[in-house]
């Protein structure tokens, strides 16, 4: 699943995972025995539990029987009692295994969801988290259906239910309705909490990652896909005829929704270095092409070839329907919302969203021309607001009696750099890494773990435990 859903190379998973557990408590024991630079928190994953209990039936999303649900609930209970912070599931069709199959639990019925959720209610701890159906606009009726059962579940078990919320292109105002429903639930004492990404959810396009010209007939006929990306760049630059064929064949992509839905030049922006995640309309490939009087696909290829093919282009998938982050601002400020990292760095070669915290502090709390957050609001969203959602009452503020982990930041110098591809995963696999200036030091457990972006070698992190 991690290879398909999260874009982590299978070779890296095979080489890097050292199996030493079967049950969730055993998994926590393995994590707890290792030394980390930061604290780790875990949730019991629906997909793995479903596959373990139901086998192939679970993997293929067949309905769960009452006996299946009882067995899944027992495993979830065991995990929460061992220290997991909650339970997580995915219901969006965007999450698929490497074979294209939706992840286990995508179509779970209410009896399954409530049967598992009641474990949290009985224990009086844990958060129920999900990527809801319709999150990418793939089902316009789904979001309000999802909110209905989420509210009923949260009220029944008296535990937080938290879900990913974003603006999608198919129904650009649905997020407003969901915020209103979350606010109504809050007024009735029902803790349904949306999690909001701090910027666009984007694909990063380039020779180092992927791009729409790879889908042309000319790309396949030339055998470019068999070459390392640097050789692709060199060959295209040296062959005028090949460049012309690529641009000509790109015209056929206009009728391919699998490409143009996310990767049409009108929705692709120059990222730059330092990167701009709220670009103006004049930075789209289509707008630049029009200003120069050239074909938009020709211009797109020119942009991709910049900086010896290291250029990355920003293709927003979510949170940029209107060409601004205004919707994100409203979602961030809503009293029910929590700040979420999206995939938090899980994707290895498609996006680079673990830097969203830096963006929140630099763009939202310093650079944006209007409706900025204060530094205090941004810090609160990233610390106490999130900690309280997950029941971590020992952290989130700097005060006596709390865990005093902190970043020392030069706010004026805080700046992201363009992501770069590095080959440091197990087995030599590659991933995108995005560095930043302005982080002076990180203090964890009274020890300095990072200084000016470099590790010091200290490993004071520990495994966070919920109910025990």
Low-confidence stretches: none
Q: What is the rounded distance between the termini?
A: 29 Å
Task: Provide the gyration radius in Å.
Answer: 23 Å
Strand content: 5-15%
Helix content: 25-40%
Number of helical elements: 20
Query: How would you characterize the largest beta sheet?
Result: 6 strands, parallel
Structural class: alpha/beta
Number of E-type strands: 17
Widest beta sheet: strand line-up: 1-2-3-4-5-9
Mean pLDDT across residues: 92
Overall geometry comes to globular
Structure description:
There is one protein chain. The chain has 20 helices and 17 strands. The chain has helices spanning 2-5, 10-16, 24-32, 46-54, 56-59, 66-82, 110-123, 142-157, 174-187, 217-221, 229-238, 240-250, 257-263, 285-292, 296-304, 306-309, 326-333, 356-367, 375-382, 384-389, and strands at residues 44-45, 86-90, 127-131, 161-165, 192-197, 201-205, 269-270, 313-318, 338-340, 406-409, 415-416, 420-422, 431-433, 436-437, 439-444, 447-451, 454-455. The mean pLDDT is 92.
